[in-house]
Queue: 3 jobs
Job 1
Amino acid sequence: MCETCSKNEFESARAALAAARSLLVIAHCRPDGDTLGSMLALTSSARAAGKAAHMMVDDDVPAKYDFLFPDERPLRGGALPDLAESVDRIVIVDTAALAQLDSLAPVLARHAGKIVVIDHHTPGERIAAVQWTDTSAAAAGVMVAQLLAALGWPVGLVQAEALMAAVTSDTGWFRFANTNPPALRLAADWLAMGVRLEVLYARLFQTARPQQLALVARMLGTLELFHHDRLAAMTLRQADFAATGARADETENLVNEALRIGSVEAVILLVENGGAQVRVNLRSREAVDVAAVARALGGGGHRRAAGLRSNEPLDALKARLVAACQAALTEAGL
Ligand SMILES: [Mn+2]
């Protein structure tokens, strides 16, 4: 099935879901297309297979993903304590980090014995009885597709579209280095089932509000280059959101704008949330492992895409990140 994952964990996940009569499927907070599409595909396929299934995201779902949930919104965290008791299995998709589950974490920690994790990030903590990790998977959506096939649960147009949204989200529309033959083979299957890529693309990437482009303009105005133009840093402060009317959920993928510059190897985007907290997105072209930079400051992620949150003031945090990325660039011989 896959080279880097444990076959035992895959089989354990399959067996746990096959035996369950009821599931609660949870996406991570600050949800992206992968976690949401994976959650929807698994939930809807489980229902089609005759299971009781619920979906939960304890955060706002960005408006661009509304089309995935035309009839039913995912539950918020308030429903967790009762559901965690009543369902046979809790499935967490696209993360194994309790920190990405915010206020759900304490309740989930008490139910580790019934949790199944499906994740493609580098394993950190052990939070579940069954924790299937496959870092070779382009997206959690690929793993869900493999699991549904092994379970023999129905996959129709709804599931195919959700999984295509998941995989295109994490592969940057098949541009990123994680794009691989299994992801493309599955995408071919979903196309054959009737998924329309051009419609999906327009729904996901051509639905911005004017306020979002105004925010992009302000962000680009903050662009600074360091280390012989190899490191870019950008900021979005509360004042930028106030001046443009843009929302915090309209910052997804904005960090990638700086990679348009040919010399840039790494990008830092710092976003002031409401309150004292700063959210950081890190991107790298290849040479720099931004996950290592993020981990040193309490975050995590992939080599080329990582992040963290901090209560440190934005300017102080930015200075530390610039120094850390410059050190990483130097270490990489750049
Ligand atoms: Mn993912």
Job 2
Amino acid sequence: MKDLPSIPRYEVLRNRRTILKNPLPFHHHYFQKYGDTFRINLGRRNDWVFTRNAESIRHILQKNHKNYGKSSLQTKELAKYIGHGLLTSNGEFWRVHRRMIQPAFHKKKLEGLIRMMYKAIVTELKEVKVNAEQDIFPLMGDLAFQVVAKSLFSADNIRDRMQRLKEITIANQKMLIKEMRMPYLKWWFHLNGDIQKHLRLAVRARNLINGIVQERLDSKEEKDDLLDMLLSARYEDGKPMPRQQLIDEVMVLFTAGHETTANALSFTLMLLARHPEVQQRLYQEVKDIDFERGNSILALTQLPYTQQCLEESMRLYPPVYFMDRVSLAEDTLEGHVFKTGTVWLMSIYELHRHVDFWEDPDHFVPERFVADGKRDFSGQYFPFGAGPRMCVGNNFAMYEMLMTIAFLVRKYQLSTTREIKVHPLISLKPSEAFVKFTARI
Ligand code: HEM
């Protein structure tokens, strides 16, 4: 792999401020200059390889997935704040827990959660300010957090604790970003106590969750929510998950499930606000949909255009814009041999806008996702990842997003005077996502 084009260390250091603010233009520049796969020389033992090559991404995530694990960015750096749950573990430990947790997210199981989700959505959307431009990202953040909270813990007396949990989740993510983007200052973050402070916050979050779990066990109530499922899941020997593991899995579901959905919803609303003709078509589809009466699952299947809008929004703005893996053994890709321990950073953002795969890649064209059997994007479109580690909550997220968009567009006309701006942190967030909601008559 030594013959792969490589960005020298001094280039990374020279551009560190720009990279910290928004690394996407830096990546794009080098993808254009060097092609779909290049190396970053950080002068360390391990090599970092960036790719937007669809075949290599499929190879790593699907075909040869056994040779790749999550890198220490997740299994150590993120795990020190949220523990070792599905998202942050590898190998047999991950496989065993995935087998236990996945059944709770099957479509059939989710049907039982739909009403709870919808109630949480309606409650949160009471905060919509009519006739004034409003930053929708905090609103969508609260909505997505409450939907996960209500689906996990259907209790009514947890709002304040959930608010605290949300604040901690956000604060720790900010810290993690600083650590990841300025690894050369890690010694300073230790010395000035920043890391210890955030580790204490993580302990507080775990205590909050532990308290809620204990209340559930003491009440002996059966709730049919995600917590009940985690409590009743069993290892092959018939034993339940240890309490600390259960808390890790809950922390992971909050972290993985709320921000990604909030981002996708905010970008979709901005796109609809900027494309009145798409919004009008979507309105025609949702205007008579009623999730409260009748069969909510059936209603969700009647929203193909809304689904296309969400798919196209996640193509342009994939919340998980990067995925990382580390190789467990030597492997050959694109004619190069990569040694054990190579860290792969797969740019989903770049792949989703690659001119070889998408016509008019920078334009919002939901029609490209029409399910007419003629087009197949499965080899180049990965908003939820691919292979055995694909997002466990993808159906959950789609249901939640379909209901939220349908509810809002049925009730309001959306408009905006703003451009769409991205703010890439651990996930791809929007910045200044101001939308005006005007009540439909
Ligand atoms: C639009 C919303 C969402 C997007 C775009 C998204 C995207 C992703 C992606 C790309 C991965 C794979 C990461 C990798 O392979 O490195 C992933 C994993 C995961 N997601 Fe999601 N996700 C979303 C919503 C959710 C929700 C709502 C939940 C749960 C309530 C969830 C739970 C998880 C978990 C637990 C994993 C780890 C799975 C494993 O490694 O076995 N996600 N997600």
Job 3
Amino acid sequence: MLTDVITAVATPPGRSAIALVRLSGAEAFDVAARVLEPFDRTAERRAKRAHVVHPPTNEILDDVLYVVYHAPASYTGEDVVEISTHGGLLAPAETLGALVAAGARVAAPGEFTRRAVLNGKMDLLQAEAVGDLIDATAPAQRRAALDQLDRGLSRRIEHFRSDVLELEALVSYEIDFPEEDGGPVAPERIEAAIDALTTALAALSQTAAEGERLREGAVAVIAGRPNVGKSSLFNALIGSERAIVTDIAGTTRDAIEVPITCDGFPLRLIDTAGLHSTTDRVDRLGVEVSRRYLEGADVVLCCAESGRDLDPTEREFLAELQAPVVLVRTKADLVSTCDDEEGIRVSSMSGEGLKLLRSDLARLAFSSLLPRADLEPLVTRERHRAALRSALEEVEAFRSVRASGMESAVAAVHLRAAVRALEDIIGVVTTEDVLDRLFATFCVGK
Ligand SMILES: Nc1nc2c(ncn2[C@@H]2O[C@H](COP(=O)(O)OP(=O)(O)O)[C@@H](O)[C@H]2O)c(=O)[nH]1
Ligand SMILES: [Mg+2]
């Protein structure tokens, strides 16, 4: 049943000052009244103090604050009670147990947000943004998620939708008055509207590559000959000693991945070796990095010591890379500055050049997002990208069917399909499987 009372601890387990236990559903107040003593269901949106008692035994479990939200003015759109218990493991768990004993059911991951969507409190894009905000590690991710939560992307898609509807209205004149010469609407006007729409749809689609990269973190792979200082650089950039550094070539055995933030943008820094696996290794190039990682790289840090010329294999390696490259001149502390050297001089020992390197990495990995001062909406998921592509294709199909002299009514079918594709993005009609997929990645209590 959709409105059964669900409950969950919304904060992570562990030692903490407080924890938050949530309760939502048509009979949430009845359940709360069996557990909170005293419980005042009329005290809307005001913190009240109470004891948590276990319903059958009446044992006092905690001394808490609770807040009551009346439907529909709550996160889920249902009656909601949020209980701030003491933190740690016992108080929240026992409060949850008491609520279950009083008739609530433990919520599935994302079930509160799922109800918010089903009750029209937020659209699908906003629900995705909730998840993205929780998963954000870099400020740029937070900005994009907050903008999406604020319906920035929803509004943009709705705008497209009304543009298509307007186009539909324009051509419907032609359907209604086919005998009129050229129709009451000038064909140039329709052409201009199609142009504007396809340009705008394409522009938003083009944010998808870096938008998805922003959500997931850009893959930055460290490459270079053995012993050039790759693992040292890795440790310096992540700010801790994760990779083992020795002067014995080939110390780094497995690829290690750690998320880092560069100028507010998220990167996934990867230190590889692959020396143990000859198949994976770019043997011919004498460069230590696995091909598998290079293929997935959004940016490559190609390392070579400061003060020496690049050898032919390194030059060849650089020339063959698909991803943008930063040439990192390592161990800069060992040699004095030489002006004409290519690349960024960096020392993992002294920290020289690290700041510049970080900026360069962000700039290369997010070249189109970085200059956007006021954050324009961008699409951050394959789901958005696919639906936008299909909306664009339908509008293009509309244009060509029209141009081929087909009846306007036939062409208009494509506009209907474009509207549906756009509505899918916002989630005007959301199917269960779309929701299942989205909320599978959520945490319990959200
Ligand atoms: N002086 C100096 N030595 C470095 C620097 N970075 C690395 N090294 C040394 O170079 C050797 C190889 O470093 P490592 O990071 O393991 O290289 P990798 O094989 O490319 O991963 C170690 O002895 C490091 O201490 C640096 O910035 N300055
Ligand atoms: Mg290494």
